[in-house]
User: What shape does this take?
Amino acid sequence: MIAAFERLVQPLLHALDPEDAHALTLKLLKFAPLLPAARDDARLAVRAFGLNFPNPVGMAAGFDKNAEVPDALFRLGFGFVEVGTITPRPQAGNPRPRIFRLDADGGVINRLGFNSQGADAVLKRLAARADAGGIVGINVGANKESPDRVADYVALIERFASVASYVTVNVSSPNTPGLRALQQATALDDLLARVVDARERVAPNAGPTPVLLKIAPDLSLAELDDVVGIARSRRVDGMIVGNTTLARPPSLRETKLAGEAGGLSGRPLLAFATRMLAETYVRVEGVFPLIGAGGIDSGAAALAKIRAGATLLQLYSALVFRGLGLVAEIKSALVAALERDRLDSLAELVGADAAAVTAEPWPA
Assistant: This one.
């Protein structure tokens, strides 16, 4: 049914402005009569951050910014959904146009700028589905005009801890001026100290809430050393590697669109993000799990992420080009890999190639 639906609507969506196509997709998911997803192969189950995931394939933040369709995404087969980025107060984000499809490259550039309906609207929706089940992570960010951005993160942890399966601290978007400065050592240490303290403060009422850190793939290795060291010392529960990149690989064919400001995602990011994932994995030394994101557009790419160090995966941009059938394709490829190697779980593959990846020449 999903394949037939996509064949019908995909030409329409690609004829629209990318942001209009996204809005239409959300509306369709709200009302589509989707059946529950088939039960996943038990070998795909993953335990991470104290949570039990039915499969490792997640929807990345940015698709369902305001928690409008998490349950529809579960019915499409995702093992978890991350909503947001959510800001404390509503904000419109940057002027349109602000999303650009690089069709020849399988990539997307966006400069949305944390457009969000704000914490109140999202909290109401999540509270209404509190008994629906499924792992729903909350990606949080600061308002552009906030006088105290760290206080924004603290406030969001306090508000969402009771309804979030986990909370991701997003300091890596390139589209809010100055936000990535929070990845610098002193600022990050202060931020994570206050965020974790807020998490512990509300835990007696909210319960345990894992805190993850989402980083940019544009960090230098020296900066990555600092980030991982701080994340470990502040006892975060995991990291997501990584967000969109400001880099523009010379291989891009959509040269005119490549000049647009914003973060690049999709296939052009795969090699770079996977290298950063492996570099992070060897530095983390098994202290906490990693979520691999960036450029996953096939079962082979998903398997490469896991072997580079990812316990879990996140998709988004590839769905624009490959469609929702990609979720099932990836799960099938992972099961096939387990059968080929006669393994019982994906945990046995995590990081298998990390050292080898870090020894390769740096991706161009």
Remarks:
- Residues 185-206 form the longest helix (22 residues).
